[in-house]
Amino acid sequence: MSEERQGTRRSDGPRKAQEIFDATLDLLAEKGYEGLTIEGVAQRSGVNKTTIYRWWPSKGALLGAALIGARQLDFTPPDTGSLAGDLEALLHTVVTLLTTRPASDIAVSVLGAATQSPELAVHVRDFFADRIALEQPVFDRAVARGELPADTDTTLLMDLLAGAAWVRVVLRQLPIEGDFVARTVGTVLDGARLRT
Question: What pLDDT digit, counting tens, does each position of 96-151 carry?
Fold first, then answer.
């Protein structure tokens, strides 16, 4: 089945796709991946389960589409006029995602489930590919302004920033200090070496 047929892009899907996506993420936040079912999504969204199965043949495929297409996780790349400002805005988005319910419940559930479900892991990779594509204008503008070399590994740059937030909040379960975002962006952009 093609990606378009499965309705994994923002513009594809049945007429009530947003209701389906919202129900999917709400149930995931409440019950975790194990408790997420197509039947539960159908009941919560008011859409017949055969319609859902027609577009998404499994709960992994449905969740993958919901991660990309749901309003709850909608994303507009920042344009502050500087790379540091844009990266701080991007990292603030990640921190908010990880510290604000129900988004934090969704993020943690997806991370845990992706380690156990190869099918879901594929859809999570699609989500991150979609997100990095949306973030690309930030890096294109930074290259045009001379703030980054054209060959910068932007995926690595975002992994370092987002990874810092994930480790701090989810794994270490430490609070985010007021200057965490600015310090993290500064460290990633400037490095941690002593300069003489």
Answer: 988 988 888 888 888 888 888 888 888 888 888 888 888 999 999 999 999 999 99
The DSSP 8-state label assigned to residue 1 in this structure reads: -
Residues 171, 35, 104, 20, Cα dihedral to 10°: 150
Decide if 137 contacts 75 (C-beta within 8 A). Answer: no
Would you say 14 and 69 are in contact if contact means Cβ atoms under 8 Å apart?
no
The structure's pTM equals 0.79
CB 65 within 8 Å of CB 10: no
The DSSP symbol for 175 reads: -
Q: If 0-12 CB within 10 Å is exposed, 13-18 middle and 19+ buried, where does residue 63 land?
A: buried
- In this structure, are residues 6 and 65 in contact, taking their beta carbons and an 8 Å threshold? yes
Q: Which string of DSSP letters, residue by residue, matches 67-120?
A: HHH-GGG-------SSHHHHHHHHHHHHHHHHHSTTHHHHHHHHHHHHHH-HHH
Residues 6 or more apart whose CB falls under 8 angstroms from that of 74 comprise none
The DSSP element (H or E) to which 122 belongs, if any, is helix 118-144
In this structure, is the dihedral angle defined by the CA atoms of residues 56, 97, 125 and 120, taken in order, positive or negative? Answer: negative
